[in-house]
Description:
Layout: H1 2-5, H2 11-69, H3 78-89, E1 93-99, E2 105-108, H4 116-119, E3 131-137, E4 141-152, E5 155-165, H5 167-214, H6 232-297, H7 302-330, E6 338-340, H8 342-352, H9 354-359, E7 363-368, E8 375-377, H10 379-397, E9 402-409, E10 414-421, H11 451-461, E11 465-471, E12 475-483
Parallel strand pairs: 7-9
Antiparallel strand pairs: 1-2, 1-5, 3-4, 4-5, 6-8, 9-10, 10-12, 11-12
Helix pairs in contact: 2-3, 2-5, 6-7, 8-10, 10-11
Amino acid sequence: xxxxxxxxxxxxxxxxxxxxxxxxxxxxxxxxxxxxxxxxxxxxxxxxxxxxxxxxxxxxxxxxxxxxxxxxxxxxxxxxxxxxxxxxxxxxxxxxxxxxxxxxxxxxxxxxxxxxxxxxxxxxxxxxxxxxxxxxxxxxxxxxxxxxxxxxxxxxxxxxxxxxxxxxxxxxxxxxxxxxxxxxxxxxxxxxxxxxxxxxxxxxxxxxxxxxxxxxxxxxxxxxxxxxxxxxxxxxxxxxxxxxxxxxxxxxxxxxxxxxxxxxxxxxxxxxxxxxxxxxxxxxxxxxxxxxxxxxxxxxxxxxxxxxxxxxxxxxxxxxxxxxxxxxxxxxxxxxxxxxxxxxxxxxxxxxxxxxxxxxxxxxxxxxxxxxxxxxxxxxxxxxxxxxxxxxxxxxxxxxxxxxxxxxxxxxxxxxxxxxxxxxxxxxxxxxxxxxxxxxxxxxxxxxxxxxxxxxxxxxxxxxxxxxxxxxxxxxxxxxxxxxxxxx
Length: 488
């Protein structure tokens, strides 16, 4: 039960244990000081009472001894009668002993210890003035022993020793001790209970805040409701609300900036494709112009004109296909999640780059596994990734170079896409930085340094990864791993 209420690693447990220990120690020190002061006061009071009683009786005893020395005593045993009467008048007395000036036994009460050594401890007769101390007697318990010398002027008549019960004093001290102990326990218990309640409210509010953090949705419009408080926790709640609003605004701004960067990089890639696209458009346009020229010069030849019209239609269809592919790549679209065949992505990008590859005399080998599982994602974004990798590979191998693209189903349940070039490779010092934004090893105007950074962001958004292996003078291999079915 206690382990469930106070788990050892909880903040409440640590605060309670530390605070309760400090409170208990403080209360014990205060109580011990109060008890010591009260005990000293009580004992001093008892000592004063014992000395007063002893001095009062010493006057009577001294007179009686003077009478006896001068043979003026009225009867034999008159000291014993004085002792018996005085003890009847003071019920707290346990024994009385009178010792002569030479240490001889003069008189004693019948009550009390049998042996004189128990009544008159060794060394007591040497005390120069009245004094008291406490000792324990067998059969009598705790006794306060009071000593008073019997003297008149410079004449020493003997000594008076009185034993006064001290059990009541001891019981009173014990009672006060347990009373203070109970007070310490009660006050400590009440303070710990109040601290428990306050900590419960405080930590409860913090748990509400943690719950709000766990359910935080930056795409949503509102935060979970938090209690309206005017203390420091309330300030924390309000700052959390403000932080949520700032983070959400920053996220929207980041998404917009990221979208603009994606689009800018796509347009930069289109610029690099411009010459190839222009050639692919120029060929069918020239063919159409030639057909129009032929029709004009032989307008009556219906059979040839039909052939020319068919050729013109094919040329326009080819030009339209080129423009459609270019627009499809350049158009700024919202990301769409749909099943994507990576083989189709590879083929689409290779068709876009076909003229540049042919113009530079490059060799592009496609090793595409059949029945490749589909991934879930945005086909346009994945085309952009592959476009960036192939363009980088084309720059690396130069004219008449070799590039290889392979797709396969990996053993870890993901689809692999590998782009291998036999180019100049990447320096080992540059490898850790190739995915950093704006990092590029190309000359001024040849690259933005954003292609690989954007590609990494796209692949990670799809729940995948990009690995790179490169050696200077041997080439570079980029390996994409995309989960079947896409990121959760």
